[in-house]
Amino acid sequence: MPDTRSPATLALHAGEAPRQAGAPVTPPPQLATSFFTHPAAVGFSANDLAADAPHFYARWSNPTAESLEQRLAALEGGEAAVSFASGMAAVSALFLDRLAAGDHLVLSDVCYAGVAELAQDILPRHGITATPVDTADPAAVGAAMRPNTRLVHVETPANPILKLTDIAAVAAIAHAGGAELSVDSTIATPLGTRPLALGADYVVHSLTKYIGGHGDALGGAVIGRSERMAGLRRQGLIHLGGALAPFNAWLILRGLETLAPRMALHEANARKLEAFLAGHPKVRSVLWPGSPRHPQHALAQRQMRNFSGLLAFSVRGGGAALAARLAERLQVISYAVSLGKTKSLLFHIPTDDLLRASFRVEGAQAAAYRDWAGEGVFRFSVGLEEADDLIADLGQALG
Ligand SMILES: *Cc1c(COP(=O)(O)O)cnc(C)c1O
Predict the structure, then answer these.
(1) 41 with 166, same domain?
(2) Which of 89, 143, 207, 333 would be a feasible disulfide site paired with 219, CB 3.0-4.6 Å?
(3) Do 303 and 233 share a structural domain?
(4) Is 350 helix (H, G, I), strand (E, B) or coil?
(5) Domain-terminating residue out of 203, 224, 256
């Protein structure tokens, strides 16, 4: 039965243990690595694992990770979830579970750098080919499909230039070609977009970002149909081993409790910072899906109920020098990588470096990236500080 309560309530209560007098309202993290069992109850091999088997060994499942998985599945409107030690552990497990030698992957040409490098460097060593395409253009996805394409992987909004993909359109193309669609929805969060309802087969999250929200725990998750998630647990956790530590699962559950109010404030602050940057004489362009200035704002309005707190801006020349100046002068905003935490983070990503080391696209695709990003983008994860303090900080540092 799908849980139809609103997201703010699900973020607090989905997957709660049965209420009994004397039981803790906030359960402690369960740190045990093994659980009492009986020889008749469980087979020793992962291949014998029943979906409803009791907890046995913490890499296979544990109660704290299970609570988190149930809450994430409810928030995404999915049947089941599997949690991982990081977002990359989630993506790599999904790719290795769904793809085999001879298979083909189509993925966003702009996506998390680690995913782009995994697709270019590791998958080909196992006989899996990958084609990066501009998934903002559904026709380009259609043109990239081959008879052996098994998976289409998109990131929307995409890190770092917040390019969007029309999930429903790309899901239809993937399915018509006999492939599945996975959507990295880390930046949108379940408060913004529910990819499964739009036709995706899998939703992937880096829980390290908005869902954990406090910048103190790495984690990842995949949400999808129960039968597929059972297979992913077997391959991704039991055999590849990237299980989420119970203490991190507990921290992420705690962060998740405030996801709805945090996302509302991230969005409100991003709206003010986008307007400030758009009017700043040193700024060439600023990208945030919630702004009518974003080239895909109409799609954002269709597909996102919350526009999240990540924006990207480029400046009129001298990005690297300005980055050094910001690293020295910012007092409230931290010059640091990552995104989606309570505190504001800002980091400069030079276009040449990203195209050479990570995306490795050429010709029209490289030109399209340059059109959005110029020489480089400042990725700005707008935090929960008072917006006026962020504007003042950025204003004094930009000069
Ligand atoms: C950070 C991030 C990842 C990787 O997650 P980790 O938890 O750092 O491994 C994947 N996708 C997106 C969009 C990200 O921002």
Answers:
(1) yes
(2) 207
(3) no
(4) strand
(5) 256
Whether residues 94 and 211 share a domain: the answer is yes
Residues 6+ apart with CB under 8 A from 89: 220, 236, 240, 242
Residue ending a domain, among 223, 256, 289, is 256
Q: Mind listing the pLDDT tens digit for each residue in 274-305?
A: 999 999 999 999 999 999 999 999 999 999 99
Q: Report pLDDT for 37.
A: 87
Smallest CA separation from ligand 1 atom 12, residue: 112
> How much distance in Å is there from the Cα of 132 to the middle of ligand 1?
18
CATH number of 125's domain = 3.40.640.10
Binding pocket residue ranges, ligand 1, CB within 6 Å: 86-88, 112, 114, 155, 159, 184, 186-187, 206, 208-209, 218, 220
- Distance from C-alpha of 291 to C-alpha of 30, rounded to nearest angstrom: 43
Residue 15's pLDDT band (cuts 50, 70, 90): confident
CA 40 – CA 26 distance, rounded (Å): 33
Choosing from 135, 182, 187, 206 the residue with most ligand 1 atoms within 8 A of its CB, the one to mutate for a pocket test is 206
349's tokens:
């990503």
Domain of residue 300, residue span: 259-398
Distances (CA, A) of 92 to 99, 114, 119, 158, 243: 10, 10, 9, 18, 13
Token readout for 51 is: 């979906």
